[in-house]
Write a structure and sequence with these properties.
The chain is globular. The chain has helices spanning 7-19, 63-71, 73-79, 83-89, 114-120, 129-156, 158-169, 171-182, 215-221, 270-273, 275-281, 306-309, 314-340, 363-377, 401-420, 429-444, 446-459, 467-471, 486-498, 509-516, 548-560, 576-579, 583-593, 606-619, and strands spanning 24-27, 201-204, 227-232, 238-244, 251-256, 285-289, 355-361, 386-390, 423-424, 484-485, 535-540, 565-570. It folds into two domains: 8-177 and 200-204, no CATH class; 215-401 and 481-619, Alpha/Beta hydrolase fold, catalytic domain (Rossmann fold, 3-Layer(aba) Sandwich). The chain has 24 helices and twelve strands. Strands 3-4-6-5-7-8-11-12 form an eight-stranded mixed sheet, sandwiched between helices. By secondary structure, the chain is of the alpha/beta class. 34% of the residues are buried. Strand 3 and strand 4 (238-244) form a beta hairpin. The longest helix has 28 residues, at 129-156.
C-alpha cells in the first residue's frame, strides 16, 4: 500500500513458510527491572506471541512462580521440609528413571503454528490483574494436588523414592548411572536429516502479557508506509514526528493531538475510522506531531532533571514545539518536491510548492492558534493553508463544578504544589504496567468497566467519552505514557479564571514585561484579525470538558475579526473526535481539506531564501 509493503501479504508469506515446517522458539528478553517489553504486532518476532498458551512459559521464571514460592513458604516452615522437596514438588512432568531432573524440552505439538496465530489474532489475548489472580489460584490448587499425588507415589514405591533421595545425596552415583545408560542408546536415522534446516523464528514473549505497541507498529501492521522524523526544538527538546509518507504529493496534512494523548490517537481506530489513514487514502502526505511531555523525557541534555524537563506551559507548545515541527515539514517537502519537479523555479516564485493543512484536537487547537498568531506578530510565514479545530481548548469559563474547584486549588496552591508535583504522569514501569493490565480488566469485566466509566464521567463533569477504551490503548503502556506538565495545567486554570485565551501569566508584572513587553500576558483573542487562513471549528454537544458554548465563543470573536470561519456541531463527547469511529466526522474533515485547491501565495522569508540556495547547490 503506497510505498509500504502490506503486512497482510507478509503474513500470507509467513503462513506458507510455516507450512514447510519452520519451527518457533519462545525466549524471554531481560531488562533492567526484570520486565521485558512485548514485541510489536507488526514485527517478524511477534507473529506468534498472541496465540501462545498460558501453560507454555516457565512457572519458576515468571511472577507467578515467585508468588507460589511466597504462598507456600509457611508450609515449608511448618513441616520443616528441605528445599529439594519443594523443588521436586513444583517440577513439571514426572520423574524419569534416568535422571532426577525433569526434562525441559517442550513438546513440539504444544507449539502454536502461524495458522493458529492467524485465527487468534482477531481476539485480544492480553490478561488483566483479575485474570492473573485467577490463574495463580488455579496453579496453587494444581500444585497442592500434585504434592499429594507425589507423596502417595513415594509411600507406595519406597524403592524409587530411595533411589531419588540417594541421587540428591550422592549425585555422582546418579550421573555415572545416567552416562552408562546413555551409552547404550542406538542412534537412528531421521527422514530428511541431510536437508538444510528451515529458518528459525525466535519469539520474544512477555510473561506479564501487556501491550506496548507504538504508533509505528499500528501503521506498519496495517500495511501503510512509515517514517520517523526527530525534531529538536529551540530549547533542546527532542520531538518524535511520525509520517505516513507520500513523497511526491503536493498536499500535506499535519495532525496535532491534545492533552494526555499522542500521535496514537489519530490511528487508533484502524484503516476505516482513523483520520490519518483517511487523509493518506485521499492522497495526502500525513505528518503526526507529538508534543513534549512523554515520560521518556527526550532531550539533548541526557542528564536533565525531571523538574527541569517538565518546566513548560502551553506557551512552549505553541511557540517552540509546533514551529519546530512545521519548519521541519517545510524543509522536507520543499527538498523532496524540488527533486521530483526540477522545473519548479523557486527564484521567480513567491509560492511554497505544497499545501499544508492542520487538524488539531483540544490542546492541539489552542497550540496551533497560538502558533499562527505569534508567527504573524513576528512577521514570519506560518506555512499553513487551513485549520480544522476539533473542540479546541483556550476558552474555559463555562465549565462544571469539578473544574472550578481544580481551578481554585491550582491558583491558590501553585507555589507549593509545583515543588512537589512537577507533572502529572505515572513515573515507574511497574505502575504503568499495572494500569495497562487493569485496563484489560475494565474491558473484560463489564461490571468493573461500567463502574470505572461512571466514575470517570463524574470526575470530568458528566462527559460520556469511552474512558475505559482509551485507557486500554497501546500508548498507555509500561514503557512510556503521555504526561502533563504542572505549568500546562496551571495555564489552563489561568485561562479559566480570566475567561480569555491568553498566554501564560508568570505571576508578576516584571516577569511578564521581560517576556511580552507588557505587564500582562498577551491576549491572543485580541489578535484574531491576524489569522489569514480559513478556520473550521467543530464542537460536540455531549462534550462536558470543552462545551459547545466555548467553541461558539471562538466562532463569534473570529467572525467579528473578519476571519473566514465556519462552525459545526455533532452529538459527540470530548474524546469521540479522535478515539471513536465517526464516519460523518471523517467525511466532514475530508470535505474541508478538499476546499484547498491551489497553493496560497506566501512571501518568502530569509530562511526560505537560504533553503532555496542550498537546494540549487544540491541540484548543481
Amino acid at each position: 500500500m503506497g510505498n509500504g509493503v502490506s503486512s497482510f501479504n507478509q503474513l500470507i508469506h509467513d503462513l506458507s513458510v510455516d507450512s514447510d515446517g519452520s519451527s518457533v522458539e519462545f525466549s524471554s528478553g531481560e531488562e533492567d527491572d526484570g520486565y521485558s517489553s512485548p514485541a510489536s504486532p507488526g514485527s517478524q518476532s511477534s507473529r506468534v506471541s498472541w496465540a501462545s498458551s498460558v501453560r507454555e512459559y516457565d512457572k519458576h521464571q515468571t511472577l507467578i512462580g515467585y508468588l507460589l514460592s511466597w504462598i507456600l513458604f509457611p508450609f515449608k516452615l511448618l513441616f520443616g521440609l528441605p528445599i529439594w522437596f519443594f523443588r521436586l514438588l513444583f517440577s513439571r512432568g514426572s520423574w524419569s528413571s534416568n535422571s532426577p531432573r525433569a526434562s525441559s524440552i517442550p513438546s513440539p505439538r504444544k507449539l502454536p503454528s502461524l495458522r493458529d496465530h492467524f485465527v487468534h489474532r482477531a481476539t485480544d489475548r492480553r490478561r488483566g490483574v483479575i485474570e492473573d489472580l485467577h490463574l495463580a489460584t488455579e496453579i496453587c490448587i494444581e500444585a497442592a494436588f500434585d504434592a499429594v499425588h507425589k507423596a502417595a507415589h513415594f509411600i507406595l514405591s519406597p524403592s524409587e523414592a530411595f533411589r531419588i533421595l540417594s541421587g540428591w545425596v550422592f549425585p555422582q552415583w546418579s550421573s555415572s548411572v545416567h552416562v552408562h545408560e546413555s551409552d547404550e542408546n542406538v542412534p537412528t536415522s531421521i527422514l530428511g536429516e541431510d536437508d538444510s534446516a528451515p529458518t528459525e523464528r525466535k519469539i520474544s514473549f512477555h510473561p506479564l502479557n501487556t501491550d506496548a505497541r507504538t504508533c509505528q507498529d499500528v501503521i506498519t501492521e496495517l500495511g501503510y508506509p512509515y517514517e520517523a522524523i526527530h525534531v529538536v526544538t529551540e530549547d533542546g527538546y527532542i520531538l518524535l514526528m511520525e509520517r505516513i509518507p507520500r513523497h511526491n504529493s503536493r498536499k500535506a496534512v499535519y495532525l496535532q493531538h491534545g492533552v494526555f494523548d499522542s500521535s496514537m490517537g489519530w490511528v487508533s481506530n484502524g484503516v476505516v475510522g482513523s483520520p490519518a489513514f483517511a487523509a493518506f487514502d485521499q492522497g495526502y502526505d500525513v505528518f503526526l506531531g507529538n508534543f513534549r511531555g512523554l515520560v521518556s523525557r527526550e532531550h539533548v541534555d541526557k542528564n536533565i532533571s525531571s523538574r527541569q524537563y517538565w518546566r513548560y506551559s502551553i506557551n512552549e507548545h505553541g511557540t517552540k514545539d509546533i514551529p519546530a515541527m512545521i519548519e521541519k515539514i517545510h524543509e522536507v517537502k520543499t527538498f523532496e518536491l524540488k527533486l521530483r519537479y526540477p522545473d519548479f523555479d523557486e527564484e521567480n516564485s513567491d509560492q511554497q510548492p505544497y499545501n499544508l493543512c492542520a487538524i488539531c484536537h483540544s490542546l492541539g487547537g489552542a497550540g496551533i492558534l497560538m502558533y499562527v498568531i505569534t508567527r504573524r506578530i513576528e512577521q514570519n510565514a506560518h506555512r499553513l493553508s487551513r485549520l480544522i479545530l476539533l473542540s479546541p481548548a483556550g476558552f474555559h469559563d463555562d465549565s462544571n463544578l469539578a473544574f472550578t474547584l481544580v481551578e481554585h486549588i491550582f491558583i491558590a496552591l501553585a507555589p507549593i504544589l509545583v515543588k512537589f508535583v512537577p507533572a502529572f504522569y505515572i513515573p515507574t514501569r511497574f505502575f504503568r504496567m499495572l494500569l495497562n493490565k487493569l485496563a484489560r480488566d475494565f474491558n473484560n469485566y463489564p461490571a468493573v468497566g461500567g463502574l470505572v466509566q461512571t466514575l470517570m464521567s463524574y470526575v470530568v463533569g458528566g462527559d460520556s467519552s469511552n474512558w475505559v477504551g482509551v485507557l486500554g490503548l497501546p500508548h498507555y503502556n509500561m514503557n512510556d505514557m503521555p504526561g502533563v506538565s504542572f505549568y500546562v495545567a496551571l495555564h489552563l486554570a489561568q485561562m479559566k479564571r480570566s475567561g480569555k485565551f491568553r498566554m501564560f501569566d508568570y505571576g508578576n508584572p516584571e516577569a511578564n514585561l521581560q517576556v511580552y513587553d507588557s505587564p500582562e500576558p498577551l491576549d491572543l483573542g485580541e489578535y484574531f484579525n491576524l489569522i489569514d487562513i480559513p478556520v473550521d471549528l467543530v464542537a460536540g454537544r455531549k462534550d462536558k470538558i470543552i462545551r459547545p458554548s466555548m467553541v461558539r465563543k471562538y466562532y463569534k470573536l473570529m467572525k467579528e475579526a473578519g476571519v473566514e470561519v465556519s462552525y459545526n456541531e455533532y452529538e459527540y463527547a470530548h474524546l469521540d473526535f479522535t478515539f471513536s469511529h465517526r464516519e460523518e466526522l471523517l467525511a466532514y474533515v475530508m470535505s474541508r481539506l478538499q476546499l484547498v485547491k491551489s497553493t496560497p501565495k506566501r512571501q518568502l522569508s530569509s530562511q526560505d531564501r537560504c533553503l532555496k540556495k542550498e537546494l540549487h547547490e544540491h541540484s548543481d
